[in-house]
Structure of Phosphoserine aminotransferase:
Amino acid sequence: MKRVYNFSAGPACLPEEVLKEAAEEMLDYNGSGMSVMEMSHRSLAFDQIIRTAEQDLRDLMQIPDNYKVLFLQGGASQQFAMIPMNLMKNRVADYIVTGQWAKKAWQEAQKYGKANKIASSEDKTFSYIPDCSDLPISPDADYVYICENNTIYGTKFKELPNTKGKTLVADVSSCFLSEPVDVTKYGIIYGGVQKNIGPAGMVIAIIREDLITEDVLPGTPTMLTYKTHADAGSLYNTPNCYCIYMCGKVFKWLKKNGGLAAMKEKNEKKAAILYNYLDESRLFHGTVEKKDRSLMNVPFVTGDKELDAKFVKEAEAAGLVNLKGHRTVGGMRASIYNAMPLEGVEALVAFMKKFEEENA
Ligand SMILES: *Cc1c(COP(=O)(O)O)cnc(C)c1O
């Protein structure tokens, strides 16, 4: 068996230790004689899995008691609708559009009310984060929305926008658990888990309790009402049991490895290796403003499409896979999430140096 270094943006690499543990427990979870995949979501064993997962996440992120943690299906994209359906009491919301995912969320919200685009970086292919210190926040806005780390373009908000007292809602799909966060700054902080936490098929939404009400937009389905899931402890219907189990294992792995502060340090170190090389390379260069660079998603180009394609192909043959950039940006993108070891980034940079020598 040979494992590759997988730079996919998502679904993405998982800690090898976690995969091995899951493999060991595949046929017999903890003496139950069955796999977690075969287990009732109402069983005592699963109840323990979901409760432990939630508590470990609360510990890692220091989530205050007045926030609910929901394990939901429908991916991050379903939140693009759930957020306005549950929060748009005045039918007004302000969106900061810094990439495709923020744009999709903004477009979806337009179905439910007045969704204002109060800032955007689309003029320069989303290669920077706009100044958000003094935005024209709508007086009656129900919330201000951001996508905190832009997976496709490789930018990240280093500072949260000044929402002038309005509730902040953030999609953190691609920077979830990559560094410590102050949950109290957000009304909702949510993300699909397939980028930086677990397998595909689930989104975790951390929501301040006062935002979870029965007062949702008319016609909102039961399943798309936060209160349904909050009241039932994410067990209103059958949840994605196996995904919750896998995420729980990753939470334990994060705790064992020093938590989010240690993760941040490791992620900064990994990203610096790649960015430092990009800054000195004569062949490759990064595509976004330095001050806004993501620690998780690193897009880069040679400026020559054929050379980019050659690089991606040769890298794959060398066991460095999924480096092709998003179709809207081109070039390459290395996603270096929590589970990507330092050695993976070192191997990538060594390969890039060799490629540069051969193709200069
Ligand atoms: C991948 C991604 C999404 C979409 O996630 P799905 O689970 O496929 O719906 C949304 N937002 C961000 C920031 C992402 O990276």
Remarks:
- The radius of gyration is 21 Å.
- The first strand starts at residue 5 and ends at 6.
- The chain has a mean pLDDT of 97.
- Residues 47 and 138 are 43 Å apart (CA to CA).
